[in-house]
Amino acid sequence: MLSRQFFLFLSQSKWLKQNARRWGQKLGAKQVIAGETLEEAMNTVRKLNEQGMYATLDHLGEFVHRREEAEHSAEYCVKILQAIHDEGLECNLSLKLTQLGLDVDRDLCRDNMMYILQIAKELENFVRIDMEDYSHLDATLDILNELRQSHDDVGTAIQAYLYRAEADVRRLGGVNLRLIKGAYNESPQVAYQKQEDVDENFMNIIRTHLLNGSYAAIATHDHHIINQVKQFVKEKDISKDQFEFQMLYGFRTNYQKQLVDEGYKMRIYVPFGTDWYGYFMRRLAERPQNVRFALKGLLSK
């Protein structure tokens, strides 16, 4: 089986990203990407809502290094928020700060976020800042802190494979956090390398955040983790209104529906757009089972 490191290496290749659209659908990307247009993504969200699920939309994009690209991304985020409002869908917005210019100019990025959050506030919606690799972590949390001085409806994600995850969760008490295992290739200096250590820390930060009385978006396809969460909230008498489960579009769809039928809130992370390459490679890296999407796509041609 191809290794996690191999796919993470591929995810960072600008050349492959630039050429991916030629053969991407053959690799099975269409099974986990909700189309290339906003209209396609909205249709997907509508169907999920009809099944009792919530959604969060992510217009995929990476390697933004020009001001004009960042400003375009900000405008597109506003377009998404307006479309969600106009359609009356149960859906919020996820985005990456690098899309909004973090690698170009920090103030540009912050100003773009302020603009997006002002629109989100007017439309009564929520915005999630996706966490990226370790090199962007401190800047992301610093900007989040600035934004929350004037906006409550913004949160971020904390990655359990990082040693510092628990400390960050404690500092962010009261913030709506997406808690995840982590999807980047980080060094042993900053991150656990063994899956059992990541899993243990994942449950640790979930318990910590819930016991703080904070809202937790628990993002995992791992039924072992989900079963532990079910047991924990039952033991501690934690309301189902204080957390939700999140899964990625296209993965474990039957299990998603099962959790909804059991009365749990389920939100589906719905990525779309033409710049899908890096996202897709990280999904292949996360779990060996995901490689079947690529193989299935190739063998069907």
UniProtKB/TrEMBL annotation:
Binding-site positions, FAD: M131, Q159, K181, G182, A183, T220, H221
Keyword Oxidoreductase: yes
Comment on bound cofactor: Binds 1 FAD per subunit.
GO biological process: L-proline catabolic process to L-glutamate
Record-listed substrate binding positions: K96, R282, R283
Alphabetically ordered keywords of this record: FAD, Flavoprotein, Nucleotide-binding, Oxidoreductase, Proline metabolism
Entry keyword Flavoprotein: yes
Pathway given in the UniProt record: Amino-acid degradation; L-proline degradation into L-glutamate; L-glutamate from L-proline: step 1/2
Protein name as annotated: proline dehydrogenase
Organismal lineage: Bacteria, Bacillati, Bacillota, Bacilli, Bacillales
